[in-house]
Amino acid sequence: MGDDAGATRAWVLHPDIKSERNRRNPEASLDEARALALPDLEVVGANVVPLPRARPGELFGKGKLAELGARFKAEEIDLVLIDGPVTPVQQRNLERSWGLKLLDRTGLILEIFADRARTREGVLQVELAALSYQRTRLVRAWTHLERQRGGLGFVGGPGETQIEADRRAIDDAITRIRRQLAKVVKTRELHRAARAKVPYPIVALVGYTNAGKSTLFNRLTGAEVMAKDMLFATLDPTMRAVTLPSGVDVILSDTVGFISELPTQLVAAFRATLEEVLAADLIVHVRDIAHDDTEAQARDVARILLGLGVSEETPMLEVWNKIDLVSPENREALGARAVRRDEVHIVSALTGEGLDPFLTAVSVALEPPTLQETITLKFSDGRKRAWLFDHSLVENQLETEEGWAISLKWTARQKADFSKL
After folding, report:
1. Structural domain tally of the chain?
2. Distance from C-alpha of 404 to C-alpha of 252, rounded to nearest angstrom
3. 220 lies in the same domain as 347
4. Residues 245-265 pLDDT 10s
5. Do residues 186 and 303 both lie within one domain?
6. Dihedral, CA atoms, 252, 258, 262, 265, nearest 10 degrees?
7. What Rg, from alpha-carbon coordinates, does the chain have?
8. What region does 322 belong to: left with phi over 0, alpha with psi -120 to 50, or beta?
9. CA–CA separation, 326 and 81 (whole Å)
10. Which helix (H) or strand (E) is 287 found in, with range?
11. How many CB atoms lie within 10 A of CB 373?
């Protein structure tokens, strides 16, 4: 696809439904929808359509329907992307009325996930999510996004056989994929068990899609993870061992970007992909602080983390990324806000600005809680006393008639190690 003559000409619509609760900024939502579409399609135009309420049959009123249809015909549009949910009935009626293909937000995200998934588990999860979505539409043909790559078996492409449009065929496919997924998940559990034996804490990068997680991951690890300025650039978690400047070794995990109104099929399907977040010792929430809708994005991330069941006790740092894109006066205001919050760090993953203090904070956050105790050692316990000094645990010592009274600050693990001497 892209700029060649055969590119699919698309138009993006964001229905701004006044009666809906928790409405988001319509212009910001439209921009996001355009960004979702841009990598794979030639987006000819986009606009917000104010609606008092969604019509059950065709979503839009008759006048708006005719007006949009005329514009699409004049612009020779092949595909309309609607940034919101569209029922099967609405989709069928709109396609019939306009004489072209239509994808709603769920369908578009599924297409993108299918294009970007890299690991076996990621591909299977996308297939499962797409099949459950298609089941409600009795396998609508997705030939409109003609793929230059091989494509997945269920996605229609040039010369590919499509799954028959009946629920039994889809259910059989879902059962088969779930079986394959169970095997892949078992392999993943073995890998996770092997990692658990390595006493490295896990630091999980989370955040709204396109917040700069992969760019930060690459800068910290030197890994060649795809880091493009497009939404959902990362769909499979990538993990690397990293040594922090303090000398602490950690496993850094780059995860799939979150997004508002993520299709329910994908929340379930990608739960396993986000398992590393549940197992994390520290969560780093990366925010695009230069984005107009950054506050709403942060709320969406918090909501998804809560839905995943992330423990409130898991330490979390907040990284305000892309500071290089912020104007000087706004930088000053952000700096004043960040100073009041110990967990917030202002950085630019692109230039490296602010990363040193952030990494120091990561080391501090991962330090286990310490206990302050005073123990008594006999004069003959020279080896034990030397061990305490070698590990820099002694805060004070006093010579008594019985031996040494030593004041210590140590972790539970260090205390257990000492008891084995």
Report:
1. 4
2. 42
3. yes
4. 888 888 888 887 787 777 666
5. no
6. 0
7. 27
8. left
9. 31
10. strand 282-288
11. 12
